């Protein structure tokens, strides 16, 4: 089974005090004096490094590209495994599907997590066994 999103589906609703009016007395500063008004404000200026910050945001992270490729490859592998599972439920595994899965597994993969690599090695071994039943021995 493939999980496409990790975002929560239930939003947390908090209590809102908007629109409530109180019966208590209004705020009165101590001494009863009203504060003096400010004559004016200084104009706001943008930080000098703003353009460099924007340029930095535009640079793509090399790890993001690797992650996108890994996610796309994993999605392809899971789709192919789902097809093989459907064939197994029917009672006959398609040789073409196994060949397709074998070609996906034989692509160069990035060594990232030992547990994941071991799982992919087990899947590849199982596909090789199934192909050997058809008399095909991939290199």
Describe the structure.
- This protein is 50% helix and 0% strand.
- The chain is built from four helices and no strands.
- Helix 2 (62-90) packs antiparallel against helix 3 (95-106) and helix 3 (95-106) packs antiparallel against helix 4 (114-133).
- The longest helix has 29 residues, at 62-90.
- The model has no long low-confidence stretch (mean pLDDT 75).
- Residues 1-34 are annotated as: Disordered.
- It comes from Devosia limi DSM 17137.
Overview in brief:
This protein is mainly alpha-helical. It has a domain at 63-133.
Please supply descriptive tags for the structure shown above:
mainly alpha; Flagellar_assmbl_FliX_class2; Class II flagellar assembly regulator; 139 residues; single chain
Number of helices: 4
Low-confidence segments: none
- Beta fraction: under 5%
Using the alpha-carbon principal axes, give the shape.
elongated
Largest sheet: none
Helix-strand pattern: HHHH
As a whole number of angstroms, the C-alpha radius of gyration is: 31 Å
Q: How many β-strand stretches?
A: 0
Query: Span between N and C termini?
Result: 29 Å
Mean of residue pLDDT? 75
Helical percentage: 40-55%
Q: Specify the structural class.
A: mainly alpha
Secondary-structure topology with pairs:
Layout: H1 50-58, H2 62-90, H3 95-106, H4 114-133
GO biological process, one term: bacterial-type flagellum organization
Biased composition (Polar residues): 1-20
Region (Disordered): 1-34
């Amino acid at each position: 089974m493939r999980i496409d999103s990790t975002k929560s589906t239930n939003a947390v609703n908090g209590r809102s005090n908007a629109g409530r009016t109180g019966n208590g007395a209004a705020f009165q500063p101590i001494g009863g004096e009203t504060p003096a008004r400010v004559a004016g404000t200084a104009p706001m200026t943008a930080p000098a490094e703003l353009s460099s910050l924007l340029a930095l945001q535009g640079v793509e992270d090399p790890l993001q590209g690797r992650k996108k490729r890994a996610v796309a490859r994993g999605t392809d592998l899971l789709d192919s495994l789902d097809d093989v599972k459907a064939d197994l439920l029917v009672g006959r595994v398609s040789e073409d599907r196994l060949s397709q899965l074998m070609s996906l597994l034989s692509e160069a993969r990035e060594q990232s997590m030992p547990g994941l690599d071991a799982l992919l090695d087990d899947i590849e071994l199982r596909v090789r066994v199934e192909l050997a039943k058809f008399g095909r021995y991939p290199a």
